[in-house]
Write a structure and sequence with these properties.
Blueprint lengths: L8 H6 L26 E6 L1 H6 L14 E3 L5 H10 L10 E2 L3 H9 L4 E5 L13 E2 L5 E2 L1
Parallel strand pairs: 2-3, 2-4
Antiparallel strand pairs: 1-4, 1-5, 1-6
Length: 141
């Protein structure tokens, strides 16, 4: 049986499951064996449309002028990236929170702001109004 239950470890421990894939939840159980399958590399992504009508993103500092899009309520994605590239510059608690990375990527593709996209997993987009790298620099998430 295959099922999904994002960040719901109680279901895993109380259920009929032998294997779980976690996307780097820092609050995961400490008493289980974990094997890194894929390292995540996050970088800001946005729609070219956002850059055409808003403040250009020529450096990470320009992100202060843009809406931050978060894929989790703990805002882990932006905290990690900002901590590495622009410490104490961005208000990582600002912006919109989405229930999944996919929804944050879609909002970015629609020009609603800048999300942290995984360089390995985020959809590669083109100039048809879809997302692409916003600024240089990626952080291990």
């Amino acid at each position: 049986m295959l099922t999904t239950a994002p960040y719901d470890w109680e279901i895993f421990f109380g259920g009929e499951f032998d294997l779980a894939f976690d996307c780097g939840n820092p609050n995961g159980p400490k008493d289980i064996d974990a094997v890194l399958v894929l390292q995540s590399f996050g970088t800001p992504v946005c729609s070219p449309k956002l850059l055409e009508r808003g403040v250009p993103l020529t450096s990470p500092a320009d992100l202060v002028h843009h809406n931050l899009l978060h894929e989790t309520s703990d805002r882990h994605d932006w905290k990690v990236w900002a901590g590495r590239f622009v410490p104490n510059l961005l208000d990582v608690n600002s912006g919109e929170v989405f229930p999944s990375a996919d929804m944050a990527y879609r909002a970015a593709a629609m020009g609603q702001g800048v999300a942290i996209g995984d360089l390995l997993c985020a959809p590669r987009r083109d100039h048809q109004g879809r997302t692409g790298p916003a600024v240089q620099g990626h952080a291990d998430l």
